[in-house]
Amino acid sequence: MEMITKMVLERPVVIYSKSSCCMSHTVKTLLCDFGANPAVYELDEVSRGREIEQALLRLGCSPAVPAVFIGGELVGGANEVMSLHLNGSLIPMLKRAGALWV
Predict the structure, then answer these.
(1) Element at 32 (helix H, strand E)
(2) Cβ-based neighbour number of residue 8 at 10 Å
(3) How far is CA 29 from CA 24, 38, 41, 89, in A?
(4) 51-66 b/e with 16+ CB inside 10 Å = b?
C-alpha cells in the first residue's frame, strides 16, 4: 500500500486501469476530455501490476479497476466518478486538486 500512496501523490489525478477494461477506458476518456491529464497505470502492462491490484482490493476497490485517485484521495471506480460528474462535483474536485486550470 505504501507504493500506491507514493504513486497517487505524484500527480493530481491517478487512474489504475487495465488495457482491456471498457469501464477504465470510459473513465480515462472522461477525465482526459476535461483536460485533467491523469497518470494512468495499466496494471496488465506495468511491472508489479498484480501486486498493485491486490493492494487496491485491500483498500476497498471492488473491482480493483478502474480505481481513481484525485488529490491523493481515493474517489472510487467508474460508478463513483460518473456520479460525481452527473451531480456537478467532479470538475470542482479536479480544480481543487490542481488538475484543471480553467
Answers:
(1) helix 22-34
(2) 22
(3) 9, 10, 14, 17
(4) ebbebbeeeebeebbb
Q: Map residue 42 onto helix, strand or coil.
A: strand
CB 69 within 8 A of CB 13: yes
The residues that bridge with 70 in the sheet, in sequence order, are 13, 73
Does this model's pTM top 0.90? My answer is yes
For the chain, the helix, strand and coil percentages under 3-state DSSP, each to the nearest 5: 45, 15, 35
Those residues with Cβ within 8 angstroms of residue 65's Cβ, 6 or more apart along the chain or in another chain: 16, 17, 18, 21, 23, 24, 43, 53, 56, 77
Taking only the tens place, the pLDDT of each residue in 43-93 is 999 999 999 999 999 999 999 999 999 999 999 999 999 999 999 999 999
pLDDT over 80 at 1, yes or no: no
Determine which helix (DSSP H) or strand (DSSP E) holds 39, and give its type and residue range: strand 39-42
